[in-house]
Write a structure and sequence with these properties.
Blueprint (H helix, E strand, L loop, with lengths): L25 H11 L7 E4 L6 H8 L4 E6 L2 H14 L5 E5 L2 H11 L3 E6 L8 H10 L3 E12 L7 E2 L2 E9 L2 E8 L1
Parallel strand pairs: 1-2, 1-4, 2-3, 4-5
Antiparallel strand pairs: 5-8, 6-7, 7-8
Keywords: Methyltransferase, Transferase
Protein name: 16S rRNA (Guanine(966)-N(2))-methyltransferase RsmD
GO molecular function, one term: 16S rRNA (guanine(966)-N(2))-methyltransferase activity
C-alpha cells in the first residue's frame, strides 16, 4: 500500500494490523482518483471509515487542503496517525475515533461541508444509503461535492438517494465504486 500520486507519490503506508479492516487496493484507489480528480485545488475531504487513512492521505497528496479521518477501531486510529506523520500531513488532518453516525452528527454541529466524502465501510456493516442521506440532508457536502462509496459488487445502490443521484459507478472484481452528487 502506498501513496499513488501527488506530493507524496510512492511513499509506503502502513496497513491496520489484523484482519478487521480491508484496505483499498492501489488499483482501486488510482481508479477512484482518476474518476474524481485526478488532482485538486483545495477543498476538504472526509474519510469516514478511514482504516489506514489511505484515501484521505491520497486526497491531501493530490491537493486537498485538509482531511478529517474517522474510524471506530483504536488500531486504525493509531495507524492513521502513523501514516499522517510519515507523510508530514499532521497539520492538514483531524483524526477522530468514533462510529460513522455519531461522527456525522458531530460534524453537522460544526457546520462544516466537504468537497469529497469517502465512504468505505466494512462490507458486512454497510449502511451507505442512510449515511448518504444524512450527508446530503444536512448539507455536509459542498454544492458541487462528491460522495465516493466503495462497496461490495453484490450491493446495488439506488440511482437516487434523498437529495443525491448516482453520477457514476464502476466495478473492479468484488468491489464497486459509486459516486453521488446533489441532483
Amino acid at each position: 500500500m502506498r501513496v499513488i500520486s501527488g506530493d507524496k507519490r510512492g511513499l509506503p503506508l502502513k496497513a491496520v494490523p489484523g484482519s478487521s479492516t480491508r484496505p483499498t487496493t492501489d488499483k482501486v484507489k488510482e481508479s477512484i482518483f482518476n474518476m474524481i480528480g485526478p488532482y485538486f485545488d483545495g477543498g476538504i475531504a472526509l474519510d469516514l471509515y478511514a482504516g489506514s487513512g489511505g484515501l484521505g492521505i491520497e486526497a491531501i497528496s493530490r491537493g486537498v487542503q485538509k482531511a478529517i479521518f474517522v474510524d471506530q477501531n483504536r488500531k486504525a486510529i493509531e495507524t492513521i496517525k502513523q501514516n499522517l506523520s510519515h507523510c508530514s500531513f499532521e497539520e492538514k488532518a483531524e483524526v477522530y475515533r468514533n462510529d460513522a453516525t455519531r461522527a456525522l452528527k458531530a460534524l453537522i454541529k460544526r457546520e462544516i461541508s466537504f468537497s469529497y466524502v469517502f465512504l468505505d465501510p466494512p462490507y458486512a456493516e454497510q449502511n451507505i444509503s442512510n449515511e448518504i442521506s444524512i450527508i446530503l440532508d444536512y448539507h455536509l457536502l459542498d454544492e458541487k461535492g462528491k460522495i465516493i462509496c466503495e462497496h461490495a459488487s453484490s450491493v446495488v445502490l439506488p440511482e437516487e438517494i434523498g437529495l443525491g443521484k448516482k453520477q457514476r459507478s464502476e466495478t473492479y472484481g468484488d468491489t464497486t465504486i459509486s459516486i453521488y452528487t446533489y441532483k
